[in-house]
Design goal:
By secondary structure, this protein is mainly beta. Helix content is about 5%, strand content about 40%.
Length: about 130
């Protein structure tokens, strides 16, 4: 199996997981845009059993943005380490694609969600199906 590694911007938190993952999602919802500070976010859906924090666990803080969803981030630099989407993927970690150190074709986005909420300048890619 291939290991994917990554971590936060300042380097205090590092993590890894093994392929395959469940999916890779481009999300256009308002929560993702606010939480990531971008016009959309890309998340790798990783089963919790495949994800391991290698260093910096004590640096991870939590923000509960709904009754069932949380964002875990580095308290030093603010980078999202992973999240839990309790509505759609309650048994998985949502890992930000932008934190990956060793990209792989296996991590190309597979679906787009909440496209009705997308910023008007964002174009939907035909090779990434829209799921309602």
């Amino acid at each position: 199996m291939n290991k994917i590694q990554g971590g936060c911007h300042c380097g205090h938190v590092s993590w890894e997981f093994e392929l395959p993952v469940k999916t890779v999602v481009k999300c256009h919802c308002n929560n993702c845009r606010k939480l990531q500070g971008s016009d959309y976010s890309s998340w790798i859906v990783v089963p919790k059993s495949q994800f391991k924090v290698n260093s910096g666990r004590e640096e991870i803080s939590t923000y509960h943005f709904s009754e069932v969803s949380q964002k875990y981030f580095c308290a030093n630099c603010g980078s999202t380490v992973y999240g839990i989407n309790g509505k759609h993927f309650p048994t998985d970690f949502m890992v930000p694609l932008g934190e990956v150190d060793n990209y792989s074709e296996d991590l190309a986005p597979k679906i787009q969600v909440y496209s009705k909420d997308k910023a008007e300048w964002v174009h939907i890619h035909d090779d990434e199906p829209v799921v309602s």
